[in-house]
From TrEMBL:
Protein name, entry field: Pyrimidine oxygenase
Record key words, sorted: Flavoprotein, FMN, Monooxygenase, Oxidoreductase
GO biological process: alkanesulfonate catabolic process
Pfam families cross-referenced by the UniProt entry: Bac_luciferase
Keyword Protein biosynthesis listed: no
Keyword NAD recorded: no
Domain Luciferase-like intervals: 9-325
Length: 357
């Protein structure tokens, strides 16, 4: 791909958890298998997409669909995909509260070699209590801001281990004495994070190469994009911004809308409620939210719905009207939908940003 500073990036959020990103009994139900995720990644690479990313998830949300009850581990999945691919960038996910930075420094230095410099890491500050309390790894004494202070020190240790032959560090959370981690990565892996809290945006602006943003609408995404980029500029840095987007693509706008409504019809209210409880919402609020627009309740991200021309216009609006540098795409049925998107939508998106695969 001919990618200049203004090039838009288009990637895939891999379905490494069963059910993918739609919590519904009437939607396709991707399997949490390496074979499927490998095939999806190879299709994405063949179509000329820029990256794939896998999440890290240690406990599902139950419900009738057992949503994310089965998941692949992100680092091992990404390492295998690195061997299977040649060009596409590969972004893994690490929970900083589960992995010591010295362990991750070695793992990512290895992944840098396997991928020939194509790897990146999405850092997650774990916030779903039951995901970690089940293994005795939840710090009830940590506030939201404490978790980000912890992760800042975590990343400082990681980056020193990537560049220094010996690291001695006596900090608030970590103690290292003549800690060694060689070889160093030939190219610093790209560091990405998500979150819209003030602490999250400060962390991204000061330390990350990429930021995943969420908002209720496109004007909100524009505000978030401008905010994190302004914060980065205050640190003398630049940062690229992304959003997640589910694509319901049909033969026509009407057909796509019918499919969208059908997926919403079977939404898994119990799983959706459990997901919202994991965000820290009170039970009454989590349950009341699921009683609203059922068609949207099944989806975990913003959704674009329509035929190829309409989807192209909507995706372009997400990057052109907001200032975002790219989107990470989700499909109901990746192996069915992705080739159609690559043939009928992606070329127009590339042309609009002046890039070629």
């Amino acid at each position: 791909m001919n990618a200049g500073a203004s090039a838009k990036e288009y990637g895939i959020f891999l379905p490494v958890g069963n059910g993918g990103w739609i919590m519904s009994e009437t939607a396709p139900h991707p399997r949490a298998t390496y074979a499927d995720n490998r095939e999806i990644t190879l299709v994405a690479e063949r179509l000329g997409l820029d990256f794939v990313m896998s999440m890290a998830k240690w406990r599902g949300y139950g419900g009738r669909t057992d949503h994310w009850g089965q998941t692949l581990e992100s680092l091992t999945t990404t390492s295998a995909l690195a061997e299977a691919t040649e060009r596409i960038a590969l972004w893994t996910t690490v929970h900083t509260n589960l992995f010591h930075p010295a362990l991750v420094a070695k793992m990512l230095a290895t992944l840098d070699q396997v991928s020939d410099g194509r790897c990146g890491v999405n850092l997650v500050v774990g916030a779903y209590e039951h995901e970690f309390s089940q293994m005795g790894q939840w710090r009830a004494d940590f506030s939201h801001d404490d978790r980000y202070r912890y992760t800042e020190e975590w990343l400082e240790v990681l980056e020193r281990l990537w560049t220094q032959d010996s690291v001695t560090h006596h900090g608030e959370f970590f103690t290292l004495d003549d800690c060694q981690s060689r070889p160093h990565p030939a190219r610093r892996p790209r560091v990405i994070s998500a979150g819209r809290s003030p602490a999250g945006l400060r962390f991204q602006a000061a330390h990350c190469d990429g930021s995943f943003l969420t908002a209720a609408d496109l004007p909100g995404l524009r505000v978030a994009n401008d905010e994190v980029k302004a914060h980065a500029a205050e640190h003398g840095r630049t940062i690229r911004t992304y959003a997640m987007l589910t694509v319901v693509l049909g033969a026509s706008d009407a057909a796509a809308r019918e499919t969208f409504l059908e997926y919403g019809r079977g939404y898994d209210a119990e799983a959706v409620t459990n997901m919202k409880l994991s965000w820290g919402l009170p039970l009454e609020r989590a349950m009341s939210m699921t009683a609203g627009d059922e068609a949207h309740e099944a989806f975990q991200t913003a959704v674009v719905v329509g035929g190829a021309e309409s989807v192209t216009e909507q995706v372009l609006a997400h990057v052109e009207d907001t200032g975002l540098d790219g989107v990470m795409l989700i499909f109901p049925d990746y192996l069915r939908d992705l080739p159609v998107f690559g043939e009928r939508v992606l070329p127009a998106l590339r042309a609009a940003s002046g890039t070629t695969p």
